[in-house]
Amino acid sequence: MNNFSVNNSLVKSKLKTGLLHLVILAFSILICSLIGCSSSKNNAHSTASSTENNKELTPVTLNEVAHSIFYAPQYTAIELGYFEEEGILLTLDTGFGADKTMTALISGNADIGFMGSEASIYTYKEGNEDFAINFAQLTQRAGNFLVSREQYDSFSWSQLKGSTVIGGRKGGMPEMVFEYILKKNGLTPQKDVTIIQNIDFGSTAAAFSSDISLSDYTVEFEPHATLLELSGDGYVAASLGVDSGYVPYTAYSARKSFLKAHPDTIQHFTNAIQKGLEYVNSHSAAEIANVIAPQFPETDIKTITIIVNRYLEQDTWKNDTIFTKESFDLLQDILLDAGELEQKVPYDDLVTTTYAKNAVTKFE
């Protein structure tokens, strides 16, 4: 074989090898491209689905006056997914006081406020043009309890004469209902009964248990009332909810401008709360406790059940969210009696029942 033949064979061999490498490289690029495209499509689909889901759920920020088992229907609606069913992505904040919750609402840091409706009256009287309008009532009795250092076989409110009680903020619904009961029983606040009003809302139970010389009684929401009992630091002597009668204690409100701009959102929100009410009014304390337990990880299920049962027995929760004129008039009577209101304000300005009535009709 001559040199030309050998060189020719080598050239052909290298050409074949080169072509093979090109084919392999091209094939590899094609595979990578296909995988990349598939991955991009999957990522695009995932993003599109996420965007689509976000569009389906309307974000709503709710600021509640306190985080208490007293509001079990609301937490039932959260835990059972009723808000999502109504197309709402709910963010829950706690104001720790109606004044703070109303501030969050009026400032726009919250879309909906959940508090005593007296706060809406105060805001209206201050002349705020974009005032809060109540659109759904949740509780129809006070949710707090009088806790004593002594255990009574029988209790009467007259026994408070000459005593000291840790009460609530002046002008707040808990304090006004407490004073309303005292007056009904012939006692004059701050004359017959000394009321301590300078302790923060969330610190009253701790103050009561840590200093036995501070007071004879304290007025507590749950779970603090029951926890004081379980620890041996106090005993529930009376229910303010039972002894005050039916009172429009807490309701949902939104700024006038928000109601006008987002009526569908308000309706869907009210629908979710209505579902929560229907659940708690048709299930046992144990069933309700199991549903809302994730909202109260620091409280054991037995204690939650005891508390829920207390609220069920005193008919705490309404069957619907309709805030009637009679209830609003009673609220204003309490404010007038407490010296917090000089003249009644128009019911039609501060309450709408449209959404509550629609919610009832929808689920009949």
UniProtKB/TrEMBL annotation:
Keywords: Membrane, Signal, Transmembrane, Transmembrane helix. It comes from the Bacteria. Coiled coil: none annotated. The keyword Transferase does not apply. Gene3D superfamilies: Periplasmic binding protein-like II (3.40.190.10). SUPFAM superfamilies: Periplasmic binding protein-like II. Residues 72-283 form the SsuA/THI5-like domain. It is found in: Periplasm. GO terms for cellular component: periplasmic space. The chain crosses the membrane at residues 18-36. This is ABC transporter substrate-binding protein. It comes from Anthropogastromicrobium aceti.
